[in-house]
Amino acid sequence: MGAQTALRETPIYMHDRAIETMPRPQLAALQLERLRKIVERAYRDVPHYRRTFDAAGVKPSELTSLADLAKFPFTKKTDLRDNYPFDMFAVPRNQLPRIHASSGTTGKPTVVGYTRNDLDNWADLMARSLVSAGASPDDIVHNAYGYGLFTGGLGAHYGAERLGCTVVPISGGGTERQVTLMMDFGADVLCSTPSYALNIAEVAEQMGVDLRKAPLRVGLFGAEPWSDAMRRDLEARLGIKAIDIYGLSEIMGPGVACECHVAQNGLHGWEDHFLFETIDPETLQPLPLGSTGELVITTLTKEALPMIRYRTRDITSLSTEPCACGRTHLRIMRVTGRDDDMLIIRGVNVYPSQVESVLVGFPGIAPHYQIVLTRDKALDAMTVEVEIAPDAPRDDASLAYKAAEVTHHIKSLIGVTCKVTVKAPGEVPRSQGKAVRVKDQRNI
Ligand code: DLL
Questions:
Q1: Residues in domain AMP-dependent ligase C-terminal (predicted)?
Q2: How far is the CA of 14 from the centre of ligand 1 (A)?
C-alpha cells in the first residue's frame, strides 16, 4: 500500500512505473531477449568482440540463459584505450550525434559514443532517476555537474528536460553565483557531486544565505564515492533529501542506477537496459547476490557502444530484496570506492570514503579532507589533512589535541595508523567537481 502510494506521486510516468515494478521473472525474460540480440550484434559489428569471443571459444548462439553470460570474456577500460578513438563502436561514426570522453589519469582518454536512440534512452533513464529521487516535472533543476566531455552535465540536463523540468545549466564553478541564482530562481533540485554540494553549502553559509529556507528539496549526488556521514551533513546544511546517483561514461553516464527517496538504501539499477553482476576481482568468478565484489555491467540496448561484461572496478554488492518504493529492479549498494582507489596502509585496506565517514560530523572538524600518501622506508604511510571548524579554538594545544583525537578515531574505527594534520579553515582545497581525495607523493 505504502509502496503504491509512493509510486503514484508521478502519474506521468505510467509506462516507467510498469517497467520498474515488473515481476522479476518477466524482467529476466526481457533481459535475455535483449542480451541475445546485443551479444550477437557486438560479435557481428565490433572486431574487438569477434576477436575476444573467438579467443575464448564462445559463440553468441550459446547464450540460452542469463547464466550463460559467465562464459563470455570481460571488457576492460584498457580495451577502450587500445581501440582509441572509435574502434569499439558498432555503428559508423556518422551515425553518432554525440561523443563524450573521460580524461583518465594516465594515457589516452576513454571515448564513448551515442546514437540518437542511445541519447533518447539515456534521457529516459536519467528522467527515471530524477523521479526515483523525488523530483517532479514542475521542478527547477540547478545542474552544477560539469558540462563538456564529462557525462555529468549533459546527462543530467537532458534527463531533467525529458522529465519536463526547467533546467538551469550552470555547470561547475563560480560558487557564489551558484548560491545567488539558486536563491533567486528558487531551485528545487540540485545536481552536483557531493563534494561540490558541500562547497556550495559552505559558500552559502559564508555569504549569510540560508539555503534551508529556500525551496531546495532534493540533491542528486554522484560521480564519486561519498559516505552516509556526508549525506547527513548535506541534508542538514541544505535542508534536502540527498540521493545517491551512479553511472559511468563507458556504460552511459549518470542514471545507470539511482536511489529512491522512499528507502534511500541502495541504488535501483535500471535492469531493462543493463545487466548487473558482481565478481570476485581475484578469481573473476561470479558472486552470489549480497556478496561484496566488483560490479560488472552489460548494456542491453546500447547501439553505438555495446559493452559486454564491462569491469567497472567499483566495489559493491547487489540486492533483490523488495524495496519499500515498490520497484522490483535490484539495488546496487553504496559504492564505497574503486578497487584501484583502495589504499593498503601497513597491511590494512582502506578506502578514502571510510576516512570521510570518520571525519564528517566530527566535533570541531570541518568536513574537508585530503589524504597524502608518502613512503616510509618500504611501507606506504598515510597523512590525513583535515581542517579545524571555523568556530573551534585554534591555539597549538587545541590543534594538537584534535589531531590526536582524530588519529585515535581513525585507528579504532578503520584499524589504520596514520598521521593527522589539522589545517586552518580554507586550507584544504575545495572541490569544483570530482574531489581529489588522495595526493600521492610516494614517488617524489
Ligand atoms: O561520473 C557519471 C556520473 C555523473 C555519475 C554524474 C553520477 C553523476 P565517469 O566520469 O565515467 O562518469 O566516472 C565513473 O565514477 O566508475 C565510479 O567509480 C564513480 N562513481 C560514479 N557515481 C558514483 C557514486 C560519471 N554514486 C566512475 N558513488 C564510476 C561512488 C561513483 N562512485
A1: 347-442
A2: 28
Q: Of the residues 99, 248, 256, 259, which should be mutated to test ligand 1's pocket, given the most ligand atoms within 8 Å of the CB?
A: 248
Reading the block at residue 105, the C-alpha cell is 589519469
DSSP calls for 87-137:
TT-SS-GGG-SEEEEE--SSSSPEEEEE-HHHHHHHHHHHHHHHHHHT--T
Q: Whose CA is nearest to atom 29 of ligand 1?
A: 248
Judge whether residue 104 has pLDDT over 70.
Answer: no
Under 8 Å between Cβ of 126 and 158: yes
Residue-level pLDDT at 15:
72
Domain at 1-339, CATH from 3.40.50.12780, 3.10.180.10, 3.40.50.720, 3.20.20.70 = 3.40.50.12780
- Ligand 1 centroid from CA 128, angstroms: 17
| CB of 223 sitting under 6 A from ligand 1 | yes
Calpha distance 332→267 (Å, rounded): 5
pLDDT at 235 over 50: yes
Distance (angstroms) between ligand 1 centre and the Cα of 121 equals 18
Q: How is domain 343-440 classified at the architecture level of CATH? A: 2-Layer Sandwich (3.30)
